[in-house]
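Sample log: Vesicle membrane receptor protein (V-SNARE).
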Amino acid sequence: MNYLPCWIKKQIHLDVEISLYYAAKCKTYDVPITNAPQPQPTTNHKSIIAQQQVNEVVNIMRDNISRAMDRGEKLDSLTYKASDVEKGSIRFKQSANQTRKRMWWGNMKIRLMIAAIIIGILVCIIATIVVKTNYSQNSKPALTQSA
């Protein structure tokens, strides 16, 4: 977008003011050469003021268009960033689910190992009790009947 830099705007504004000043000064020294009707002094001044106002409006519109284009670019950038964040959130959710499943299996393995150790200890205890009771029953002297 072509818009005028600030220093050019100031120069144009100063040029218009200087033109108005010299136009007013020159009119006081103008001597009519012919009897032709002279233009109204206010019409020239009014046209310069109108032109100045038009220039100001044009500059304001250029600034507004420039800002609107910048805003559009920022919205496009924001849209791209939002889609990137959305993709990142989907990847995060997938990796979080994978981590949760891995941790669940890790906990389940530890529980199964603990359960196997407890069952092994119980089997050892029960086996020693059974062996002792069988040994004690076998080692008792047999009662013989005397007749």
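Observation: The chain has a mean pLDDT of 79.
Observation: Residues 113 and 119 are 10 Å apart (CA to CA).
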